[in-house]
Write a structure and sequence with these properties.
Strand content: 5-15%
Number of helices: 2
Low-confidence stretches: none
Shape: extended
Number of strands: 2
Distance between the termini: 13 Å
Oligomer: single chain
Order of helices and strands: HEEH
Mean pLDDT: 83
Length: 99
Amino acid sequence: MLERGLLPDFSAQALAELNRIQSPAQRNAEPIRDLTELLWASIDNDDSRDLDQLTVAEAMPDNTIKVRVAVADVDALVKDGSAINEHASHNNNHRIYPR
């Protein structure tokens, strides 16, 4: 990872922020629709604990297809400009090319 410019370890600031998170994110004022009856799919590995995007396709009565994408709301706990966000941004924005 270091050879590719990635940060394998979290900074002390990022770990301190993580330790301050004591519970799951709370709902905001908007109602949440329960879509658990849909057959969602993920391209993550079977052992992944990072299910941050799911998709489902539905056939509609007018012969069209509705595709839904569920994306994790990371901002609910990790704020822009935080040490955790900076670490993730650094590792996400690096282009890794094979040698």
